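tool_call: predict_structure(chain=1)
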Amino acid sequence: MEESWTGDSNRGGACRALWPVIFACLAATVIGYKPVIVVHGLFDGSSDFVNLLRFINESHPGTNVSVIDLFDRSASLLPLWKQVEGFKEAIYPIMQNAADGIHFICYSQGGLVCRGILSTLPNHNVDTFISLSSPQAGQYGDTDYLKYIFPEFVKSNLFHLCYTAVGQRISICNYWKDPHHQDMYLNSSDYLALLNNERPNPNATVWKNNFLRIKRLVLIGGPDDGVITPWESSQFGFYDANETVVEMKKQDVYLKDMFGLKTLDARGDVVQCVIPGVQHTKWHSNETVYTACIQKWLT
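tool_result:
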């Protein structure tokens, strides 16, 4: 009898030890987490997101996560419309196989690529668009990235290059927004000004409706980013002509609801998550950021 009880006890303990694993697998099957698409930023590649993948797999076991391996490293300097078309081609089959929709996590420059996808893809099924430290309102700052790409320029004179046909073939110029040369920006920006409906665009209404298909927009950023300038651009804030930051709700693109941001906010579907102490290259590998700003939306 003692041997029998001991054996049963051991088997029972082993079964109890397996319950967390069994429960996690059942949860993934029953809950059916939506697939997650990750779009990288400037000079990044798919290999940079191993920590983010781990966070997702630990909190949402069984989630299908795709880090799109396109326009890596120096290829990320190609024009953003070219990148939009390439990413759309890779992402669309994943959308078609996801009846309940998908989530976007789009980092840095990738956040603007994702806006281009969302605006121009009429039948997309993106549920939550997570913009991870992305210059959504534009970029204007002397950063290490700027010095690396344009060693002969500083922020005050980069408009001479960016606001030309040649400059618009370089991704960063597609969202360079010099607050002291707004007329040139409006006349020359082939990407951000079109997305924002700040310059004439015959597709503006269609693009706005496409963008509003998302269920939620999560804006993540913080004051210690060190690259996104101003950092409030991650929250759709930006400089005025005096380089004073004007917050999202006082921006023309919001007040005039030029591409749907105000409508989205009125629906209660804009979430702002500001985390101090995070440098730009650390956003996707910071577990606090994941737990506080991303995890709960990936259902």
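agent: The radius of gyration is 22 Å. Proceeding to next step.
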